[in-house]
Amino acid sequence: MFDQLSYPGCAEISAETGWEVRPSKPWAPQTVAAHPWEPLLVAGHCIAATFADGRSGIAVTFFLDTVTGRLVAASRPGLCHHKAIVGAGEFLVGSQGYGAFSTAHYDSSGAVVREWPTHAMLLIDRHCAISGPESENSTPSRSRFVGLEPDGTVRRGPALSGYYTTYPALDREGTAVFWRDGRLLAVDADFQMRELFALEGEKRAVMSKIMLLGQGQLAFALHDKLFILRSTGLGPLDSGVWPCADGGLHGNPVTHQ
Q1: Whole-number Å distance between alpha carbons of 109 and 79
Q2: What are the backbone dihedrals phi and psi of residue 74, each rounded to the nearest 5 degrees, phi first?
Q3: Which CATH number fits the domain 1-119, given the four candidates 3.40.50.300, 3.40.50.1100, 2.40.10.480, 3.10.310.40?
Q4: Which of 21, 131, 193, 254 would bridge 244 by S-S if both were Cys, CB 3.0 to 4.6 A apart?
């Protein structure tokens, strides 16, 4: 799969093209590395392992059988980004960059069964509902909190200002919580948004995931400071497959039986 890579969004300009912008010819990667975003996920009998070309960032996710080690399938090459487990042997793979802005649902055979025209920091609740804040490289922000519907449509919720965003957490009542643009935001199951906490002028990009603790407590870090909030009105962490049990404290790979 990595002998030759190509992607329609990649272009080049050189003396060979007459200094015109033209689609890049297929190329052989010189360096390949594990993808920086969720590079390894384990869901039941299937592993999703993502590797990227060091020059272009174009990546491929390989789906392997955990028992035999056999390669089951591979995703289409692209500039993938956030990924998540959606069920036993099933994964969501988001694409962002070179004109791509989408999410694909791969089943246990490695086939794409659904696609949505959005890319987000994904949350999957215990009823398999999918939602999250959109993640797009654009300023000013065009992102919204979105829901990915079973029929491939996108439910568009409140607009999100700013850019840098903590990976959200989801409570048992369907409320997502995340830090963005100097504010700690909560979006409930009806897509109503409220502000829990704010720091004027806080724009730092170095941040942790949101951690939902017991008794309505919440913790997250911004650069070198740890914030712990009490009495947020939030419930305990949802028991869905992503975020995984205990708020992801066990780390990746995440196993779904």
Answers
A1: 22
A2: -145, 150
A3: 2.40.10.480
A4: 254
pLDDT tens across 109-162, in order? 999 999 999 999 999 998 989 999 999 988 899 999 999 999 999 999 999 999
The pTM (predicted TM-score) of the whole model is 0.88
Question: Which structure tokens are listed for 190?
Answer: 């009806």
Q: What distance lies between CA 147 and its chain's CA centroid?
A: 13
pLDDT in tens, 187-211: 999 999 999 999 887 777 788 888 8
- Domain ranges across the chain: 1-119
